[in-house]
Structures
1.
Amino acid sequence: MTDAEKHTAMANAIRALAMDAVQTAKSGHPGLPMGAADIATVLFTRHLKFDPADPHWPDRDRFVLSAGHGSMLLYAVLFLLGYEDMTIEELKNFRQLGSRTPGHPEYGHASGVETTTGPLGQGIATAVGMALAERAMNAGFADEIVDHRTYVLASDGDLMEGLSQEAITLAGHLKLNRLIVLFDDNRITIDGDLALTDSTDQIARFKAAGWRTMSIDGHDREQIDAALEDARTSAQPTLIAARTTIGFGAPTKAGKSSAHGAPLGEEEIAGARKALDWPHEPFHIPADILDAWRIAGLRSRHARKEWKARLEALDAERRGEFERRMAGDLPVAVDGVIEKLKRDLASEPKTMATRKASELALERINPVLPEAIGGSADLTGSNNTRSTDLTILNAEDYGGRFLHYGIREHAMAAAMNGMALHGGLIPYSGTFLIFSDYCRPAIRLAALMGQRVIYVFTHDSIGLGEDGPTHQPVEHLAALRAIPNLTLYRPADTVETAECWQLALASRDGPSAIAPTRQNLDQLRLGFDEHNLCARGAYQLRAASVEAQISLFASGSEVQIAIQAAQRLEAEGHPARVVSVPSFELFAAQSASYRCETIGSAPLRIGIEAAIRQGWDQIIGDGGLFVGMTGFGASAPYQAVYEHFGITADAVVEQALARLSALNGED
Ligand SMILES: Cc1ncc(C[n+]2csc(CCOP(=O)(O)OP(=O)(O)O)c2C)c(N)n1
């Protein structure tokens, strides 16, 4: 076999596995794997650095299939290269329950799947975070330990999504020259020819964002090889626009949208087998072709062994630090600084906005947590996410630890996913809570992938005041609470804020969102308690003098309203207790007995939160009284807005008394 014939056979192995797996599953996307098979073959057999025997090797190159619908491309390649957990059985079980081969690649299902993709645009933006993490870790540990690249395969759909614009401009600005995007330039989307919907000159677009660009024939192995070689020497991130034919080899469907997302059908597959000169049975790869792939899978074994020797040669402290960070273990000092902060706050209580309290916590945390990379989407001074010790991370200094993401909330959230997935870093960053909507698809993926990403969503309610209803979140707390595996914190004061930070950092298996206020709040927790009371999600902050008639539940800035209301109700002869609820999710995870005890048995339960009621019924019940928002806010100084919407201690007392009378059958 000539080299050219060998390449073609290896690429055809991908094509055959993809069309057969999709046909067997009776669903899936054969078009992209068949079209991009030549690109993948050259990339994985000649350029990508990885070792199937050690899929988590920290210095491996990362490969992100941004066009996640083409998952069979990745699964086929992983099988062919010899990743142990990607067996031929898994390919036969494509898209079946419990398989390692779900419809779209899902992080944690099979080794070699670096991130979950499927929502177009997410992969390329996540990869920006991976490429950034590589540079940040390189700045700390040098070339001998951290020296790899991030490759992306992106489709027309990826590049049409708005998120990709945020991502490519961020990568260009940061000069992430180890990011290489292979664009599967097939000019077909589901609805038909790309000309239906888009006229963008992608080369000009990427150039304008500071990328190096190339255009090649995506079926010419020499051109693919040369472009990838060239990209390695670039001082900028690289776009390789590779013109391909979707469904390459399919006799009537190649080049058409009909190849995109449905089984080709028996007849078409038979025709493709002929056209590709692939006479083999479904799922059968001839030994010589499989051997060629397996040999390619061994390509970087030596490099990995050399890397391991270099790691072992490091002094014990440095090596230990690298291994600790990659394992995601926190330094022991973190708990100590939080405890010290709580002691300081007990001896000198502070009235301040919880966004400021968050900064206070970061001032203590960041010096002992070198893996924390902070940031903000152009609201640094408002989000209070930059502690004084953090220098700027930019193209001139990847060793900085604070990133100005610009007004790119969505890419910020996606890049944080990439950093967390890369390992060695704990990304946190801020914007206004209202703009969590702009981050939401990436937050959802962080939750789905179980990544430790921390969002600081300040300006958490109508309490932000004058900016008005466009900036005042009302449904956002409920919307974030609806995302499984995301923990939302709404701390009530300085002490709770410190505790919420401690919990967010310790949460290794999922993202956290902290929602601090713009406005000042009194410190409510005055004594020192070594326990993290927020860890239980809700706890009694104020007891009633005798058996409570009323239980008041509140989060964040409304806890102080609850306390004032409880004091007045007590004064009027109605014993009232207050429960602070910093996190619904953590409370829901407590034992039934703790939840029962915390909810209590007072005949009247009142929830207070400057947001919509949704979600509160699980605490206050259907018959509970809710003091909050039912619509959008208003622009005015915050005290006036609270007054206007009736979220005050007076209003709570008035409603409580009215409800008590009704409960007691009085008029
Ligand atoms: C955010 C998002 N919107 C819509 C979809 C559904 N979808 C899957 S693939 C695709 C577009 C297909 O075109 P292209 O990206 O060029 O892929 P190709 O046809 O080349 O495989 C769409 C709209 C999606 N996966 N993600």
Note: The mean pLDDT is 98.
2.
Amino acid sequence: MSDVMSLKGNVKGKLGLDVFKEGEEFHIEINPAKRDDPRLLACVRICPAGLYSLGEQGEIVLSTDGCLECGTCKILCGDEVLSWKYPQGATGVQFRFG
Ligand code: SF4
């Protein structure tokens, strides 16, 4: 196994330690009018939790379950593409180190 693949396995294992509690509403939503914006495609590669993926029709699929609240997708896409806000209190990510 290459060093990169080994590192990727370690990251997935560490992400599995975190807990994410979904709130009553999604804290990140894609603007329907911007679904074909190329910045969303970049999110597939840059989201550290791997929450953006390509659907069967090539559309961008977002699952907010497991979001690290890092804001990377917000910075990349801007407010015109994504509606992004922190989850309500007592919801969202709980980091577990170790
Ligand atoms: S805030 Fe970070 S972890 Fe959450 S969806 Fe955006 S890039 Fe992924």
Note: The chain has three helices and six strands.
